[in-house]
Design a protein that fits this description.
It contains 25 helices and eight strands. An eight-stranded mixed β-sheet has the order 3-2-4-1-5-6-7-8, sandwiched between helices. Helix 8 packs parallel to helix 9.
Length: 505
């Protein structure tokens, strides 16, 4: 999501490069292009007007800060405006630390992904050591209740037994009684949807609300519907009284207009984003982090949190020990590829890394993860455990390389290429005890093979201080150049407590 808007805003900032002072005419020109970019991203017109006015008020007459270019100043002003429009991270928190059971009512139109989101949310909450009960109130859609039951079985969460013939209000009352009697911490009610908003739907949801008295009423909307999502949210906010919303299918929405408009129109925060089809593909909506993604500044904190969430602690600790000792074999290499896939792949990770987000679309379009990395993983899977632990055995034996190539559906040249890249990486690992940005780029270059990374950097015009960066660029050619934006960056406390890499040895 936001790729289109991010590209357009990036072009606006590019035009401010080289300016020594932020003049009024520069601001007016930039504001016109920002307005167009937001409208093309499907942001609601009233929201665009308010946003542009806010940026203008802060940009015109802005005091020039030493060592900060006009492009950097404009990035900061727009970043603050986007964050203000999207809300605060405090608003995103679910209010479930109440007298049990905390009741969450899921509402929305049919086809928005409400039932799947109910399952994702249940799994998310169980990670907080909460006991969750699911109940389907959807008596309209065929097999809707069975769908939630199956999802509950998949994620290990209890669902309320189905009793044929009960009305949604009766189910809600029974669910609340069971949740109290059996000491559930959270009860999630999956209400019925319709193809469009009608009186029958609103009356049914209102009746359920009155009997359930939910602590949270979350509206599930499909981000792909653009302005329609905002209209739906406004109607539910007025008629039902939502406490927040969940945007689904954001992985398929490149514009992001619904997210940019939702809070401004309804006055209620976006609480979660549905990022894919899997049951763990849901993330808390952090406005400040989203603003960073839109402006190409990455989202390091979310990247760290995702790494902690998917990381195998024992393997990570063993890998850290080997890394420190310079002992890195093909099993470790394969493990890192798997961890990268679990985190969404190289492109998804690059979108969260400062300065690298613009390269993500090129990774995706080149299908490098489906070709180069997949091929390398196949080659390593065709080796025996002993060969992966001692790659020299493969290097020294032509017959082994032929067998591995045949077993992986590749060529001997592919096997030789992997071994060469691994040798280069192993040498680099001995020097890179502390991975910096340049180290990451070198590692990515080894993973991709050949000069693919250099070519991509050259296509982008290069980046100062990075492989492929040109030496004749102006100091402010990168909006993030100058003072280090991460000088005061701190990792989340949970990460510092739990990260196996942080343990003293």
């Amino acid at each position: 999501m936001f790729e289109s808007l991010s590209d357009k805003l990036g072009n606006v900032f590019d035009k401010l490069r080289g300016r020594k002072v932020l003049q009024a005419e520069d601001v007016e020109l930039a504001l016109g292009e920002i307005r167009t970019a937001l409208l093309e991203a499907d942001v609601a017109l009233p929201v665009v007007k308010a946003f542009v006015e806010r940026v203008k008020d802060h940009a015109v007459g802005q005091n020039i800060i030493k060592d900060v270019s006009p492009a950097q100043q404009m990035v900061k002003i727009v970043n603050d405006a986007i964050t203000a429009m999207l809300g605060t991270s405090d608003e995103s928190a679910l209010k479930i630390d109440v007298a049990a059971p905390a009741v969450i009512m899921m509402v929305g139109l049919q086809g928005s992904g409400k039932t799947t989101t109910t399952g994702k949310l249940a799994k998310f909450i169980t990670k907080q050591k909460k006991k969750v009960l699911l109940a389907s109130l959807d008596t309209q859609r065929p097999a809707a209740q069975d769908q939630l039951r199956i999802i509950g079985e998949q994620i290990g969460v209890t669902t309320l037994p189905i009793i044929a013939g009960q009305t949604p209000v009766q189910i809600a009352k029974r669910a609340k009684d069971v949740a109290k009697l059996e000491s559930y911490d959270v009860l999630i009610l999956d209400t019925a949807g319709r193809l469009a908003i009608d009186e029958a739907l609103m009356n049914e949801v209102s009746d359920v609300r009155d009997i359930a008295k939910p602590h949270e009423t979350l509206l599930v909307v499909d981000a792909m519907t653009g302005q329609d999502a905002v209209i739906i949210a406004d109607e539910f906010a007025k008629r039902i009284g939502i406490t927040g919303s969940v945007l689904t299918r954001i992985d398929g929405d490149a514009r992001g207009g619904a997210a940019m408009s939702m809070r401004a129109v309804t006055g209620k925060p976006i609480k979660f984003l549905g990022t894919g089809e899997k049951m763990d593909a849901i993330e808390v909506f952090h406005p400040d982090r989203i603003a960073g993604r839109i402006l190409g500044m990455g989202d390091v904190v979310s990247l760290v949190e995702k790494a902690v969430d998917v990381m195998d602690r024992d393997k990570a600790e063993e890998s850290a020990r080997k890394f420190q000792e310079g002992k890195f074999d093909l099993d470790d290499f394969r493990g890192h590829l798997q961890q990268m896939k679990n985190m969404g792949g190289m492109a998804a990770m690059m979108k969260m890394m400062p300065g690298l987000s613009k390269m993500a679309p090129q990774i995706e379009s080149a299908n490098l993860e489906g070709t180069v990395l997949k091929k390398q993983e196949a080659i390593m899977s065709s080796m025996t455990p002993r060969e992966r632990a001692k790659p020299d055995l493969v290097s020294a034996s032509a017959s082994r390389r032929r067998r591995i190539a045949a077993g992986s559906g590749t060529t001997v040249q592919d096997v030789n290429r992997l071994l060469k890249q691994f040798d280069q990486m192993q040498g680099a690992m001995k020097k890179l005890r502390k991975m910096g940005m340049g180290g990451m780029m070198g590692l990515a270059k080894n993973l991709l093979g050949g000069n693919a990374m250099d070519k991509m950097m050259a296509d982008m015009g290069g980046m100062p201080g990075m492989p492929g960066g040109t030496s004749n660029q102006q100091p402010d050619s990168n909006p993030l150049a100058g003072p280090n934006p991460f000088a005061n960056f701190q990792l989340p406390p949970d990460f510092l407590r739990n990260n196996p890499f942080n343990k003293k040895r």
